[in-house]
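Hi support team,

I'm filing this because I wasn't sure whether my run with NDP finished correctly. The job status page said complete, but I'd like someone to confirm that the output block is well-formed before I use it downstream. Pasting the exact inputs I used:
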Amino acid sequence: MTVKDIFESMDYGPAPESAADALAWLIDQGDRFGHFIDGEFTEPGDGFLSKNPATGETLATLTQATQADVDAAVAAARRAQGKWAKLGGHRRAKYLYALARLLQKHARLFAVLETLDNGKPIREARDIDIPLAQRHFYYHAGMAQLMEDELPGRAPIGVCGQIIPWNFPLLMLAWKVAPALAMGNTVVLKPAEYTSLTALLFADICRQAGLPKGVVNIITGDGAVGQMITAHPDIDKIAFTGSTEVGRQIRTATAGSGKALTLELGGKSPYIVFDDADIDSAIEGLVDAIWFNQGQVCCAGSRLLVQEGIADRFHDKLRARMATLRIGNPLDKCIDVGAVVDPVQLQIITDMVDSCEDGEIFRADTDLPEGCFYPPTLITGLTPAHPLMQDEIFGPVLVSCTFRTPAEAVQLANNTRYGLAATVWTENVNLALDIAPKLIAGVVWVNATNLFDAAVGFGGVRESGFGREGGWEGLRAYTKPSGKPKTLSPILPHEGSAGPEGLDRTPKLYIGGKQARPDGGYSKSVYSKSGKLLGQVPIASRKDVRNAVEAARGAAGWAKATAHLRAQILFYIGENLSARADEFAARIDAMVGGRQGHKEVDAAISRLFTNAAWADKFDGAVKPVPLRGAAMAMREPVGVIGVICPDEAPLLGLVSTMAPAIAMGNRVVLTASQAFPLAATDFYQVLDTSDVPAGVVNILTGPASDLADTLAKHMDVDAVWSFSSADLSAQIEAASAGNLKRTWVNNGQVRDWGKADAQTFLNAATEVKTIWVPYGEG
Ligand code: NDP
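And here is everything the job wrote out:
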């Protein structure tokens, strides 16, 4: 084709990027790779092929890691970790900066290799994946520099096992490795089987940067290697990105191991277009939302919700735009849609779409190249409950349905088990800012889509996982409190014999702002240290837990109450507790034995004041993103939190967990100290007189293990915290896998309840949702 031909037809001519340097690099390595362990590449072993999905050509042979390889990598990471942490923030910052510079220097090589290995268009690898990976290393070089000053009292977690998927191979590596290294951790990373090459090139870069041996270890292989990492006893934290199904398996496998865990999982993110939207912009956004990276994006806007009045026009314009998408050789700079990562993934997409007998399937009449390609597809007319409207397809397939009112849009958008991202298009700023907070998602884009930056936390809620990557909020997941943890000795209730008849008062459960008899009608005696009967507490059953959760769900309005009101109520609880301080102190002394009651009550009052203070001061942030606009990191309540309160401080422990939770707008189901429950049952009288709306705080008594199990399995509970035994921690983590609820457990370790540690509690009580709002009309 001549320039004249091109000019006359206005067709795009071929503009292929050369693969020569990337192929030469592969040849230099012998086209065979071992693992990168302790600063060196191991001899290649039994392996598997890494192929170019666009052509089917073999690029290299990779080694399947054995248990011995995983052990060697973990041992190297362990040996390196202490020294790496001791280098200090500034010297680590210099290494991270060197890695960022080298990523920049070799940007083209990384981009081409990524495209060859993954099939994504070079335009995307070159302009998005690789620059964002560099940005993560720059950003976290800064975080390493700031750690000592800005994160006092925090220490590295240790050795991190990191398992990443194939859709953004280098970028996911950067999201995981940069913050881990910045905070003084060392890593063992497993890239996905289909796309390990840029991780191995990164290993080469680590050598060039002179990174100390063992700080970064990269081992290749399939899911079995991921399982070995997950199960390894000498790994302190697992960070995983991938499917919800594997995320659930990892939650179960790590339960009770004491390993920290973050999961970034799947999504079925809504893309909402209101009738006043700038339709052409919304269509371009949609191209980016669902056809970027062939739709193999966890936060892909894969579920189009379009307002009924414009639906036909919108779909017509969309079909016309689909006809202009260029599909083909990913190395061609003019290509919009490249190859799907592997024939296996192609088959998954094909089977899912072929199983659809409803709706109307549209594909533009464009030529599809030979190989691993799937055409951009639009399916209209599906009902919201249709499997293709609910399940992640992870391919270039958009499903669509309509809505009439903003309220219906929100309802449909939230009608999913996921909660990763959402997009809203409207020219009405009031509407956009009304809708964005109502969407259940970790990220919301207004009049834009798929915007990312290292300064902004990315991650989901519900079955999209937990934890954030990026920003200050992502860093905490790579740190832990400094100091040596101490094991908590079990605290057992005092024993005694039946006391005199005619107790003056038998407390009840506290559910929905009312005293409630236990469903089973059973109660248990509570004795003093000397064996004197102090009272009886009800034994809550599963049904009582369910009632308490229902009451907490019903009190959802609390999340919308102003922070000022929440603060006032917390102050008021403090005031009312203060008025009865002597009585509470005497009760604690009688239950626990000793004379610590007054001190504990005073600390509890102070804790209420601390959290009243924070209620209107625990701010979100506006992130300095490289875009003309604002990325607003808003703190939202987690929802309904079940708490297994500690035994060491029966009143202070309960108050210390309840107060931050309700300060942030959560509702709680508190299970009182099993050993010393009467402080909690006395406390509901204080709540009754403090204007706490019904259902915001619910208090149960009974065996912690049974109550924790029911709470952890309950689909309407969003988080469970436990400050009881290691066994209970394990039980809660395992049971939470059902709906992947957040857990915060003590693993049977001591907490100093005398310290407020407000930030830790407030962070656990909130989720960061980032709302991106670009400025301007251009
Ligand atoms: P997986 O969740 O299986 O893979 C993600 C990573 O975990 C890979 O490195 C994989 O290894 C590894 N892995 C697999 N099984 C285990 C295990 N039991 N324990 C520990 N690690 C494991 O995703 P797939 O690549 O198989 O894709 C399947 C589906 O998952 C896709 O169709 C898509 O729907 C979804 N997905 C979602 C992603 C997201 O970002 N939300 C990313 C990728 C996929 P290996 O690749 O070698 O098998």
